Amino acid sequence: MKYDIVIIGSGPAGQKAAIAASKLGKRVAIIERNFRGMGGVCLHKGTIPSKTMREAILYLTGYRHRDVYSKWYRRKRRITMQDLRLKLADVAEHELEIIHDQLERNGVEVYIGEAKFVSPHEVEVDCETGRKQLYGDYILVATGTKPSRPPHIPFDGETIFDSDEIIDLKEIPRSMIVVGGGVIGIEYAIMFATLGVEVTVLDGRERLLEFCDREIIDALIHHARSLGMIFRMGEEVVGIERFSDSMAAVQTESGKRLVADSVLYTVGRVGDADELNFQAAGLEPDERGRLWCNEEHQTWVPHIYGAGDIVGFPALASVSMEQGRRVICNAFNEPFEAFDLMPYGLFTIPEISMVGKTEQQLTDAHIPYEVGAARYREIARGQISGDRDGMLKILFHRETLKILGIHAIGEAATEIVHIGQTVMSFGGTIEYFRNAVFNYPTMAECYKVAAFDAFEKMSLDRLFEESKLTKISADLALHKLEEQPAELDEEETVEI
Known about the structure:
Blueprint: E1 2-8, H1 12-23, E2 28-32, H2 40-44, H3 47-60, H4 66-69, H5 81-85, H6 88-105, E3 109-112, E4 114-119, E5 122-127, E6 130-141, E7 145-147, E8 160-161, E9 175-179, H7 183-194, E10 198-203, H8 214-226, E11 230-233, E12 237-243, E13 247-252, E14 257-260, E15 262-265, E16 269-271, E17 304-306, H9 317-331, E18 344-346, E19 352-356, H10 359-364, E20 369-375, H11 380-385, E21 391-397, E22 403-409, H12 413-425, H13 430-435, H14 446-482, H15 490-495
Parallel strand pairs: 1-2, 1-6, 2-3, 6-17, 8-15, 9-10, 9-15, 10-11
Antiparallel strand pairs: 4-5, 5-6, 7-16, 12-13, 13-14, 18-19, 19-22, 20-21, 21-22
Helix pairs in contact: 1-9, 3-7
């Protein structure tokens, strides 16, 4: 079976790559382990399930309306894991149908089975009907990642579990220790804290989510602590053990022992390609099972590409989709205009989103910047929705006024960030937000309020500069007067 490109993995990167290649008239094959697994981890274990569960938590706990109807407002008094999973099957089934329909309409040939390289151009697929040998002029590895599961951690899927297993819990635990304060760990930690679970987060780093704006993360931590969450930073975990029927203990390097009903272990993810036999293709993954790729997403075997989570940071579904399209354009010499401005979305409670530079990055680069900020409590829509703690920050260059970064926390943060992303992409300035008209009342109005805040700060700065100039002029005039001859008459003195 000869193809222009063989794609291993049907997640966001693999899907979009397959469709893009098909639209160029190429013969395309895509390989997935099992039929129900089409869509990859994103659809079945990661992005879609976790965000669907988050939405259920926000609805059932009445979180969005607590400040409107009092903090005790709830739609359901006793929430179960079954309640949280109620919508998962419907969403997954709908998305699965869309994926199959898109691949079928575009003439992509789908192979279901375990894949492995037999040579740099050949992939063998162990299907139910026998083994198939596929030859690809190009090959894309888009197998994604899976949770890291060190052998010394006694995972059982009930008391001690990873992020793939958490959606299958039978009951909501009374207490939980989250080992690992990365994006996945923090998202699940705050979800369960919102349900009333006693949550403790352990992480070996001194700061959480260091790639985000510090003020935004400080606001997130403040909210998390108001839910009763405990953070123990700079703590390395040396052991986890289960005792009794439903309890677990976590031992730290510093000598602490923490006990809870459950432990969620989320310390990193590894490439999901153990059976792919990379050596036969001339590839060697790193210690975490990831593939090295250049800017064009080529591995060191030029006709083999990598895209999605298996190539590492940022490991976002949205970025993976663009990486898949980029691979096809590069492989088949099609133009591809890449945008460097990739937005990040963290579906914590409240959600966080950003695009562009942080204050820390601009400070380190010695770029003169100013900040315009808007608080949700200043926005009518913020009052209506009951979110008074959210905020939007615009970072811009003090001299050129160009937008350098957008950072938001609160309701709809992952939506409104795209307004700033668009303006930045076209080299826009803070003046755009001052002059633009936004629907009222909306969260997007934050941009205008932040722009007014920015210009108020700039006007104060101009007053300072003008006062300095006035003082310099006065000093020069006084100095000139002091240098004049003593016999000047009164009229000449007044003129000076």
